[in-house]
Write a structure and sequence with these properties.
Layout: E1 2-6, H1 11-22, E2 26-31, H2 39-47, E3 55-59, H3 65-75, E4 79-82, H4 91-94, H5 96-117, E5 121-127, H6 151-170, E6 174-179, E7 182-183, H7 192-201, E8 206-208, E9 215-216, E10 219-220, H8 221-232, E11 256-261, E12 267-268, H9 269-280, E13 286-288, H10 304-310, H11 318-333
Parallel strand pairs: 1-2, 1-4, 2-3, 4-5, 5-6, 6-11, 7-10, 8-13
Antiparallel strand pairs: 9-12
């Protein structure tokens, strides 16, 4: 198959592309290599993909309407994994327009490309952030998500609504994946694990929000990539049992699905920090701070739907995953 992976130089995009290439798919990787965080890290990820004969790279912004239309028309993709987005909950408070440009306008361009070129299946990145102010645990796809608490979350919910519209109107099979706190080697520098490891090694204090009273469903990158590929291989289908009189948010009478993809084993932030300290063999200096605007104290994924659909659910223990990240970090930075 010929598969477009947007955000191919990103954290998840690189790992997904590697899996697809390893099994023989032809991958066209798209990325704009922007400077939200180090473009050098993105280029180094990309350098791991470029040697593959069945990989080609296109430098483009998904918000480029004409460019995206031309790409879809010329390449005739079988399936699409759309991971390009402006990430980060906290940054969305500072630069909300970036989220509209990338996450809404860019997603519109991807949907239009899929529609007009007959793409078999679009799998796209949503986020656990869509659960917003929900306090019922674990988070389930069957729950209402009408109360986002950040612009980032709002754009991800918008993606799900837009995808459903295209599934309904044009029969485009779409599947959204609500990622839960992805971590591991080649991770993003703006994420907690990267920030904490760097600060600890540099003898700087780490910022511990909500005074440490945070819980996260940390999910290892290899599990995320495996889940993405498994979902890609099974296109969404209409549910004949869907009842429009009692609509279930996790179901549709159109070829549309959404899935949580998380470890389903939430970890206290202080225990996560302890895992990093043990892997580095060095204690952290901690600066305890209040909960930040747009953040939530707890995330916890119910992955029953994912397991039922694909036969797979993530399961890498946090201590093991953190250890692998620290090994990569020391090697990459020569520490």
């Amino acid at each position: 198959m010929k598969i477009l992976v947007t955000g191919a130089a990103g954290f998840i995009g690189m790992h997904v592309s590697q899996l697809l290439l390893a099994r023989g798919d032809r991958v066209v990787g798209l990325d704009n290599l922007n400077d939200y965080y180090s473009p050098e890290l993105k280029r180094d990820r990309l350098s791991r993909l470029l040697p593959a004969e069945n990989f080609s790279f296109v430098k483009m912004d998904v918000a480029d309407r004409a460019g995206m239309a031309s790409l879809f028309a010329e390449e005739n993709f079988d399936r699409v994994v759309h991971l390009a987005a402006q990430a980060g909950v906290r940054y969305s408070l500072l630069n909300p327009h970036a989220y509209i440009d990338s996450n809404v306008v860019g997603f519109m361009n991807v949907l239009e490309g899929c529609r007009h070129s007959g793409v078999e299946h679009l799998v796209y990145a949503s986020s656990s952030s869509v659960y917003g102010g929900n306090t019922k645990m674990p988070f389930s796809e069957h729950d209402n998500i009408d109360h986002p608490v950040s612009m980032y979350a709002a754009t991800k919910k918008a993606n799900e609504l837009m995808a459903h519209t295209y599934s309904h109107l044009f029969g485009t099979a779409t599947t959204g994946l609500r990622f839960f706190t992805v971590y591991g080697p080649w991770g993003r520098p703006d994420m907690a694990l990267f920030l904490f490891a760097k600060a600890i090694l540099e003898d700087r204090p780490i910022d511990v929000f909500n005074h440490g009273q945070m819980v996260r469903d940390f999910t290892y990158i290899d599990d995320i990539a495996e889940g993405v590929v498994r979902v890609l291989d099974r296109p969404a289908a209409a549910d004949p049992a869907f009842d429009p009189a009692l609509p279930d948010p996790a179901r549709s009478n159109s070829p549309y699905r959404v899935f949580n993809i998380g470890n389903s084993d939430p970890v206290r932030l202080m225990d996560f920090i302890e895992s990093i300290e043990q892997a580095l063999d060095k204690p952290a200096l901690k600066n305890f701070m209040p909960l930040q605007d747009g953040d939530v104290p707890t995330t916890f994924a119910d992955v029953t739907e994912l397991a039922g659909w694909t036969g797979f659910k993530p399961g890498t223990p946090v201590r093991e995953g953190v250890g692998r990240f620290v090994d990569w970090y020391r090697s990459y930075y020569g520490i």
